[in-house]
Amino acid sequence: MTAGDVRTLTVRAAAKINLHLGVGAVRADGYHPIDTVFHAVSLFDDVSARSGTEGAGPVLDVEGSDHVDLTEVPLDSRNLVHAAATRLAREERRSPDVRIGVHKSIPVAGGLAGGSADAAATLVALDRLWGLELEDQDLLRVAAELGSDVPFALLGGTARGTGRGDVLQRVDDRSTWWWVLVTSPQGLSTPAVYRRFDELFPTAPARPTSGDAVERAVHSGDPVRLARVLHNDLEPAAFDLRPGLADLVSRGEAAGALKGMVSGSGPTCAFLCADAEAARAVCAELRETERERSAADARRRTVLVTTGPAPGVHQVAYERR
Ligand code: ATP
Question: Whole domain around residue 233: which residue ranges?
Answer without folding.
Answer: 177-308
